[in-house]
């Protein structure tokens, strides 16, 4: 397994304790995976550590942001994703705007080239990074890029090429079976044999309806991955530098989906004198991508439409001679789009530009005093566009054609200064203390416009068509931080770290703007002193906050409204000047055991997090004509065990064999919600917050069977009309004989009960082999795609099991409801039928490498490493979807909903890395 060198300063390592830096492969053996589900081990000061805290769910939708969970979820309306620092610059992992498509969120870390990352610190709470204060409730990922190093210029060149093969094994009817299915459907709806015989669909001679088209095969492809990177670094006694440039291109397994990145980075450390040094970071990255709708809108979901499209239909129109023309076939007689139109003509694309810069000075005032000050700036712009033509695509309500575009930007400026001192109180007592102040300003902007119904499909521009919607938003916030922290060590046996963070945010009213975030951790080195310790025990407490609101909720806000053709406004939010951040208190205990020095490490920990003052919405009586107000009302708790182990099984001049394993448990529960249940919707799915339940639980109906006969029907619909034989039997929760929203109940939870990894790294002389296995247990998945393939509410192709649906009392079927156009009995409502166990065991990666080291007389290169790797090679699971790794929204309320996005697929890569 490739090792990633640690470069985080020794003071940070002291704070981290066992929370060491680690990395994992994404795109090639040297790349980084911000995940503990996909965690490998790295060498840190000769020790191997693995720590499982971050759960990640991903899929094969290239360029999309993975879903991260670090010690649970603890917010309803704010972000529950970790804050990310890149060389000290904070980055919001989730975007500030709603998704441009229903579930696609561009990866906001995609600007980072993995070859330039030196290490990642996973900091689960504020005790490990006190400066985070009021935005550390979800933990922190502290990413550091490489620096230059003393010596002559060193050149590293790497090149990687790989392929990705995804399996789209979707059970569906073939051409003959689908005709039989439609024949029986039309018969059930009252068509006579004579009418069916006259229907051209069933004509054996009509060329339009006698094809054998594999629509799914026509939209998929073999994905190709390419990556090239050049890195120069070196230095002398006064200056160390790193310059890097890289290019990455990754294709998806659905046609016309791809991701491209071009990046440049320059890092410089310069020693002005024996006491003063400066450091500079500068980087620019451009990324772009083409993607498709793999979310809740099944009308333009290419994988679903290709699965649902009748295989007896053709791809193009036929001319008068019955020959295939060059014109794509339009919307078919059964009402479905042409999948080729969705992948070839409907385009969604984005372009991302980011510039980061840091300039800082470190001044060693005396042997005991040190001053550090830096100024950092970050700017990025994201342009998102969609072009939707009319040919071959089902119209969306009144929109026949559509051009839409959104341009958004974020600007961040921070000044930070830190004055520190270290010394001794007595011979056996040492201390470190620091005062820190920081001022930050942040601004985001977004402009959105959409035009519809242009005259032809020839215009991919907002210059044509009718204005459908437009918006312009701007948001500013300022943050001020004052921090006092210190540590004291007695006789290398006891260490106590403490800090007080006083932070003020303009996101809140004057009465609630300032808050205090304390932290304390005590560590006892029980078996040996600190440097030779074999057993240490630590207790910690910290308070962090979540103030990432995206609205001035402490003010009255008026919103525009159209009133019978006239413009107007209404009071959409009642100001709450007492609104304050959500507060999280974390308690933890952990033990680190090294019974045989550095050869074996065992870590055991337990944490308990309680979040209070959840920002929730309180409704106001509609008669008052107001939208309500946001207030602090609610509590949620997360708790779990974190276990890790690593061992150097063999260590000699020829053979090295290391292993690691981690396990992390998670229990999440909403403990208070004064404003009552909160529901959030995505398509047909509902995420629920309710006292006593896990946050974001699936909410729907519990199906107990199918009504077999009319006289068996004992329930009415919400409108008072009875159900019919063949409809699903839904549990009547309130026993009123009527099925409506009051009969919904919790039907599953997307959060895992435990997760972790097992990794091994074996080398013999210049050969090496590494492997990584991930596992997740207890995370439920709502299989929306499978439900859609069994819905039978239109004339789409379906799963072959629909042939055994309920048809009559004499043909009761095997558990599926009757087929009804329009689903008038709501058999397609979210229900327990489609909740599945998403537990899995996955062989995540295997890498074989060989290293060639230059001899004494070799002048051309120093070493060459050649490697062959495979990812996602094998998965054991009972889940019936593409892949149990389901990536949806980074929303705490709407996770693990499988709409049928491309699976990760098996990836095979060949790479070379040469050092000169």
UniProtKB/TrEMBL annotation:
It is found in: Cell outer membrane. Residues 349-670 form the TonB-dependent receptor-like beta-barrel domain. The keyword Iron-sulfur does not apply. Keywords: Cell outer membrane, Membrane, Signal, TonB box, Transmembrane, Transmembrane beta strand, Transport. Residues 1-23 form the signal peptide. Residues 43-140 form the TonB-dependent receptor plug domain. It comes from the Bacteria. Pfam families: Plug, TonB_dep_Rec_b-barrel. It is a multi-pass membrane protein. Belongs to the TonB-dependent receptor family. This is SusC/RagA family TonB-linked outer membrane protein.
